[in-house]
Write a structure and sequence with these properties.
Layout (H helix, E strand, L loop, with lengths): L2 H11 L4 E6 L4 H12 L11 H5 L10 E8 L8 H6 L8 E2 L1 H4 L3 H19 L4 E4 L7 H7 L4 E2 L5 E2 L7 E8 L18 H5 L5 E3 L2 E2 L5 H4 L8 H4 L5 E3 L3 H4 L25 H5 L3 H8 L9 H15 L5 H7 L5 H13 L4
Parallel strand pairs: 3-10
Antiparallel strand pairs: 1-2, 2-7, 4-7, 5-6, 8-9
Helix pairs in contact: 1-6, 14-16, 15-16
The structure holds cobalamin (B12) and iron/sulfur cluster (SF4) (2 copies).
The site of cobalamin has 36 residues, from helix 2, helix 7, strand 7, strand 9 and helix 9.
Protein name: 4Fe-4S ferredoxin-type domain-containing protein
InterPro entries: 4Fe4S_Fe-S-bd, 4Fe4S_Fe_S_CS, ARM-like, ARM-type_fold, QueG, QueG_DUF1730
Organism: Tepidanaerobacter acetatoxydans (strain DSM 21804 / JCM 16047 / Re1)
Length: 344
Amino acid sequence: MDIKQDIIYFSKEIGLDKVGFTTAKPFLQEKEVLLERKAKNLISPFEEQDIEIRCDPEKSLPGAKTIICFAMGYLIYSQSSLEAVSSHIESRSEGKISRYAQVKDYHVILSEKLRHVVDFISKKRPGRFKIIVDTGSLIEKAAARRAGLGWIGENTCFFTPELGSWIFLGEILTDIEIEPDSHIESNCNGCGSCVSACPTGALMAPFQINPYRCLSYITQIRGHIPEEFRKALGDRVFGCDTCQEVCPCNQKVKIPNHKEFIPDIPAERDLEKLAILSKQDFNMMFNNIAAGWRGRNVIRRNAVCALGNLRSENTRNLLKVLTKDPSEIVREQARWSLQNYLCR
Ligand code: B12
Ligand code: SF4
Ligand code: SF4
C-alpha cells in the first residue's frame, strides 16, 4: 500500500471517520471572502485575525505541501436521537446544551488522535508536521471541502454525506507531498429552512453568518448578555443547534457513538440546579466538555436567563435570591429575568 492508503487505514482504525487530502496551496477565493468580512466587521474574536496566515498554509508550516483533513462524528446514543428531537418535550425547567458541547472536549480528543497519526506517518516517512484543531490558523471548513470530505451548507456548517454536520474537523499540515483528492458535489438543496429557522437573523443570507448575532457565540461571551438576544436565547444554556436540526441533510445520519466522546458524568440540565451550580459540581460535570471552557458563572448566567424566559412561578424566589449573588453577571441577569415575569 502507498502512504496515502496507509494513512487512511490507520486513521479509520483509531476512530477518525473521514480522511481527505489537499494541497497546501493558498485559499485565494476564501481570502476575498474574509477581506470583505473584515471590512464589514464580521470577523469574530474566536478567529485568527491575520487573514494572510489563515489563507496561506505555508505561513503556518514553511514548506508545507499537503493538508490532511479529518472529520469525526460526535453524536452519541445518550443524546436524544435526531428524530426524537423535534417531538421530544423537554421538562419545563430543562435547558438545552448543544450536542457538540455535551461530549468530551473535542480539542483534546481530536488532537490526541492526530498526534497518533503523525507518529504513524513519521515512522514511515520523515517529515515536518503541524496539528490544527479549531484554534489554529487554518480555515478548516474550506480545507475540508477542498479535500473532498463534504460541502458547506447555506447555514455555513460543514456537512459530510454520512454524518451530516454533526462533526468536528481537524488537520495535519505536512511538508510531505501526497496526492490530493478532489472535492465532492454539495447536497445542500437550497431549501432555506436553516435561514428561516435562525432565531436572530444571524444567517444574514445563504452562506453568510454574522457571528455577533449567532446564539452559539452569545452563549459563550463573557460579561452581560446583550439585551437584544435575551429572549431569543429561550432555554439555551450553551451553543445553538437550530440551523442544523432543521436541515434535511442532518436527518437519518449515522450515529457513530464514539466512546471517547461519552462524558464520565452527563452535564446537569436542570436550570434551577445550573443557576446555583457549585464549583465542585461544575468541575465534575463541565471541566472535560466543551461547554465548560468559559467557566461556571457564564453557565449560571445563561441558566438564569433561560429561567427568566420560562417564567415558572416556582423559580421566582430563587431568582430573587440570585439578585444578591456574588457574581455580578448572575446578579444582573437575575434582575432582568425577574423583570421578564412582568412582560406577560
Ligand atoms: C469562528 C467560528 C465560529 C463562529 C462563527 C461561525 C462561522 N460559520 O464562521 C461562531 C461562534 C458563531 C461559531 C458557531 C458554531 N461553530 Co464554530 N468555528 C469557528 C471557527 C473558529 C472559524 C470559522 C470561520 O473560519 N469562519 C469564517 C467564515 C468566513 O467562514 P464561513 O462562514 O464558513 O464562510 C464560507 C462559506 O460560507 C462561504 N461564504 C462566505 N460568505 C459568502 C458569501 C457568498 C456570496 C457566498 C456564495 C459564499 C460565502 O465561503 C466562506 C469560505 O469558505 C471554526 C474553526 C476554524 N479554525 O476554522 C469553528 C468551527 C467552524 N465551528 C464548529 C462548530 C461545531 C460550531 C457550532 C455548530 C457549535 C454550536 N452547535 O453551537 C456553531 C455553528 C454555527 C453556524 N451556523 O455556523 C466546527 C464545525 C462544525 C461544522 N460541521 O461545520 C468548527 C470547524 C470547529 C472544529 N474544529 O470542529 N463558530
Ligand atoms: S447556530 Fe443558531 S443562532 Fe447561530 S446561525 Fe444557527 S440557528 Fe442562527
Ligand atoms: S437547511 Fe436546506 S438550505 Fe440549509 S443547509 Fe440544509 S439543505 Fe441547505
